[in-house]
């Protein structure tokens, strides 16, 4: 009996010591996070979204990632495009694939995946296709920030109703002519995106070449690009092209080389 009692006491002591060690480790982690925050340092790219960031801070980080994705989410981006390159004005422009009011719609059926997907999965689709990168860590601060920002663009009034101006405009299915599109590009687009389509600075993104979106992106679809172009481009005179001109321009851009989509990521 004394041996059994002694063993029980030892077990209790070990359990107590383990609990104390875990508590000390948690306290050290909190102290390091508080120190980093106090010094103006963001948590590392792989760190989880934690209590060190408030809801407002996550929204602000999400907007920065959305606006300047290559620099704010560098480890997960292969292209030199931001989310805002296609979702104009940080995702608020109607018929430029806006983010306003879409958060309550998820989970939503994806025609591409042929199943219901979450908002996080939809974000990953963009990262691996349009950003030619890789998925965000599901519990990382980047994903939490992106979700927080997109949710901030919805109000209680949205309530899951289809937002006005969602997606892109509907166009008739036309055949594009790349030769005519080349002339349109030289006259109206080369000044912004460069004669080789590699973009100009951080303002105008590359629309073909190794730093552009890959051939699995939504914008690689001829109809999608034409619909985006006719409503939103060129910036100085959006809506100035006819549907045929928009298809011709898209056909020219689609004739150019770009990265290949990695089908190992088809789950997204």
Structure described in brief:
The protein has 268 residues and is mainly α. It is built from ten helices and two strands.
Give an overview of the whole structure.
The protein is mainly α. The chain folds into 2 domains: 55-167, Cytochrome Bc1 Complex, Chain D, domain 2, CATH 1.10.760; 178-263, Cytochrome Bc1 Complex, Chain D, domain 2 (Orthogonal Bundle), CATH 1.10.760.10. The protein contains 10 helices and 2 strands, in the order ααααββαααααα. The chain has helices at 2-38, 55-67, 69-72, 88-91, 119-128, 141-152, 178-188, 190-193, 222-232, 243-254, and strands at residues 108-110, 115-117. A two-stranded antiparallel ribbon has the order 1-2. A hairpin with a 4-residue loop joins strand 1 and strand 2 (115-117). The longest helix is centred in the N-terminal third of the chain and has 37 residues, at 2-38.
Helices and strands in order:
Blueprint: H1 2-38, H2 55-67, H3 69-72, H4 88-91, E1 108-110, E2 115-117, H5 119-128, H6 141-152, H7 178-188, H8 190-193, H9 222-232, H10 243-254
Antiparallel strand pairs: 1-2
Helix pairs in contact: 2-6, 7-10, 9-10
Radius of gyration: 24 Å
- The percentage helix is 40-55%
Top CATH class of the largest domain? Mainly Alpha
Question: Architecture of the largest domain in CATH?
Answer: Orthogonal Bundle
Tell me how many strands there are: 2
Biggest sheet, in brief? 2 strands, antiparallel
What is the CATH superfamily of the largest domain?
Cytochrome c-like domain
Number of domains: 2
Spatial gap, N to C terminus: 61 Å
């Amino acid at each position: 009996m004394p041996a059994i009692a002694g063993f029980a006491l030892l077990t209790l002591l070990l359990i107590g010591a383990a609990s104390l060690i875990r508590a000390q480790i948690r306290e050290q982690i909190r102290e390091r996070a508080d120190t980093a925050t106090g010094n103006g340092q963001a948590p590392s790219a792989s760190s989880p979204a934690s209590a060190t960031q408030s809801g407002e801070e996550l929204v602000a980080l999400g907007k920065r990632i959305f606006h300047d994705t290559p620099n704010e989410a560098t480890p997960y981006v292969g292209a030199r495009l931001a989310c805002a390159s296609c979702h104009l004005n940080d995702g608020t422009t109607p018929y430029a694939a806006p983010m306003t009011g879409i958060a309550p719609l998820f989970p939503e059926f994806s025609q591409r995946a042929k199943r219901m997907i979450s908002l996080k999965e939809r974000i990953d689709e963009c990262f691996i296709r349009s950003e030619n990168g890789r998925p965000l860590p599901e519990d990382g601060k980047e994903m939490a920030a992106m979700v927080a920002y997109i949710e901030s663009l919805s109000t209680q009034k949205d309530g899951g109703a289809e937002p006005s101006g969602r997606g892109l405009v509907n166009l008739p299915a036309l055949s594009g002519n790349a030769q005519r599109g080349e002339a349109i590009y030289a006259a109206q687009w080369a000044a912004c995106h460069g004669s080789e389509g590699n973009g100009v600075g951080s303002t105008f993104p590359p629309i073909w070449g190794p730093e552009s979106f890959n051939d699995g992106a939504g914008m690689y679809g001829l109809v999608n690009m034409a619909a985006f172009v006719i409503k939103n481009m060129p910036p100085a005179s959006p809506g100035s092209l006819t549907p045929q001109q928009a298809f011709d321009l898209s056909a020219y851009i689609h004739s150019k080389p770009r990265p290949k989509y990695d089908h190992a990521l088809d789950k997204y």
